[in-house]
Design a protein that fits this description.
By secondary structure, the chain is mainly alpha-helical. It has 19 helices and 4 strands. It has a 4-stranded antiparallel sheet, with helices on one face. Helix 1 packs antiparallel against helix 5 (124-141). The radius of gyration is 23 Å and the shape is globular. It is found in: Membrane. Keywords: Chloride, Chloride channel, Ion channel, Ion transport, Membrane, Transmembrane, Transmembrane helix, Transport. It is a multi-pass membrane protein. The chain crosses the membrane at residues 13-33, 54-74, 152-175, 187-207, 227-250, 262-283, 295-313, 325-344, 359-383, 395-415.
Length: 513
């Protein structure tokens, strides 16, 4: 097991990351295009069904057929359930291993069939898992299928998937580092960025240069109105905590139906028929709603009703376990909350209505930041999706306030919480591999081992600290080597025990506080 990568190996891994990005860009672009076109077809069918009873019956039968087929896919491959981001996190943590080809084609087909009829689900979570599967596949085909090399390719594929889904390469790389991989290693950063940029080139060629959420606005928000960011941030934090609680509770609610987990998707698929007939413009992931939100007029009743519909049915859609994400629905709910707040403040004479678009943009970032607890990703993502750098300061303010509120309410990152709900095979966690692996442990400011000597830290016997990186400089650890914040400890562990060793180190550091 190598302790460090040579320059040639780093270049090779970056080149493989570019290949992963190109392949992910092609697959995710097809996925994104298929969903958009199919959704328009279904919206047309829902409208036509208003005056055609036979078409209503046909649509119900079609939804039952889709539910049965998607249920079959879920039964054969349970790892395609939900957004896929918790599964990717668990895989990178060494807690599970996925069969990349099985996940790739089933997630692709199941995701289209689940999202296209209009369920309130996003394409970005499945896109991240599709990219991760492609990264794993490239690792297998290039023999980088053991240890850190494959994890880097999986992470870069996840970055490419989000980049192609939203045409947001910087946010794709940042999301992987901040939320999925939990590691700002230069090797991961460079490879993920190369993969994300490559995927975005493909997406831009297919969908054009226009930002995904081009919300029009007239003026920048003056400093005198910044107090609204604090109030709105508090509201977003409270609503974000409610979203977390409801999302985590929905599987238990669905289990009350006594339907097998893999067939519970029949409930939202049948319910989407009357909902699509009633408000076809409000179904789906919600990106068009965000763009058109201002055109609905300054009606508090309409905005509140839209918020209730989107919130409740988002819970039903995702809670059923179908292949689909919550990324875009979260942004959509944030935008509606921002519009609702702007209209309410305008009617009270506290804010001009032409700042509604500003608050729509800001609230998207704040809502996503507090639910995922990934504020940097939220700021960069909304900046790239809107296509403007003029909002960085208010985005930072509202994201910080919303984040703090959820933190005070003991809210955990939603994807981390969902990962803990996964059924992890204990046999897999207790396996022993014939390979050794590299475990990289970043030392944060305030860590319990910051300022301690190596000899004073009771590392588990199955962990060997073999190297310390201080910036770009590599140190050989000795007993009198002082650990400092910002260091990266490189430990040698058995490849099959990587997840358990990570947990042991976390418990060790907590016990030393």
């Amino acid at each position: 097991m190598k302790l460090a990568f040579t320059d040639n190996e780093k270049l090779k891994l970056t080149a493989e990351g570019i290949l992963v990005g190109i392949l992910s860009g092609l697959v995710v672009s097809m996925f994104r295009w298929s969903i958009a076109r199919s959704l328009r077809i279904f919206q047309g069918l829902y409208i036509a069904a208003r005056t055609n009873m036979g078409l209503i019956v046909g649509l119900v039968v079609l939804m039952i057929a889709i539910a049965i087929f998607v249920g079959y896919l879920l039964k054969k491959e349970p790892d395609i359930s939900g957004s896929g981001i918790p599964q990717v996190e668990a895989q990178l943590a060494g807690e599970m291993q996925m069969h990349w080809w099985s996940v790739l084609w089933r997630k692709f087909v199941g995701g289209i069939l689940s999202i296209a009829p209009g369920l309130f689900l996003g394409r970005e979570g499945p896109s991240i898992q599709l990219g991760a599967a492609i990264g794993q596949g490239v690792g297998d085909l290039t023999h980088d299928n053991v240890g850190v090399s494959q994890r880097v390719l999986i992470a870069s594929g996840a970055a490419a998937g989000l980049s192609a889904a939203f045409s947001a390469p910087i946010a794709g790389a940042m999301f992987v580092l901040e939320e999925v991989y939990h590691n700002f290693s230069p090797l991961v950063w460079v490879t993920s960025l190369a993969s994300a940029v490559s995927a975005n080139v493909i997406a831009l060629y297919v969908f054009g240069l226009q930002p995904v959420l081009q919300v029009p606005y007239k003026f920048s928000l003056p400093i005198k109105y910044y107090w609204h960011l604090i109030v709105l941030g508090i509201i977003l934090g409270l609503m974000g905590r409610l979203y977390q609680i409801c999302t985590l509770a929905m599987p238990a609610v669905f289990n009350l139906t006594r339907l097998p987990r893999y067939i519970q998707c029949i409930i939202p698929l049948i319910l989407i028929v009357p909902l699509g007939m009633w408000v076809p413009q409000f179904i789906g992931g919600g990106n068009e709603i965000i763009v058109d939100l201002q055109s609905y007029g300054p009606s508090l009743g309409l905005m509140f009703g839209l918020l209730v519909i989107r919130f409740v049915y988002s819970m039903i859609s995702y809670g059923s376990g179908v292949p689909g994400g919550i990324f875009l629905p979260i942004l959509n709910l944030g935008a509606i909350i921002g519009a609702l707040y702007a209209i309410a403040m305008h009617q009270m004479g506290l804010l001009p209505l032409y700042f509604e678009s500003n608050l729509i943009i800001f609230a998207m970032a704040g809502y996503f930041a507090c639910i995922s607890k990934a504020p940097f990703t939220a700021i960069i993502l909304v900046t790239e999706m809107v296509g403007s750098l003029k909002h960085l300061m208010p985005l930072a303010v509202i994201s910080l306030v919303a984040y703090i509120v959820v933190d005070l309410l003991n809210g955990a990152p939603i994807y981390e919480a969902l990962k803990e709900r996964l059924s992890i095979n204990s046999t897999y966690l207790n396996r022993v591999s014939k390979f050794n692996d590299r475990l990289e442990v970043p030392i944060y400011e305030g860590s319990s081992i910051d300022g301690k000597y190596i000899r004073d830290i009771p590392f588990p016997k199955d962990i060997l600290v073999v190297s310390i990186y201080r910036g770009e400089r590599q140190l050989i650890p000795r007993g009198d080597t002082l650990i400092k914040a910002g260091d990266r400890l490189i430990c040698m562990v058995n490849a099959g025990q990587r997840a358990k060793m990570t947990e042991k180190l976390n418990n060790l550091f907590k016990s030393m506080d």
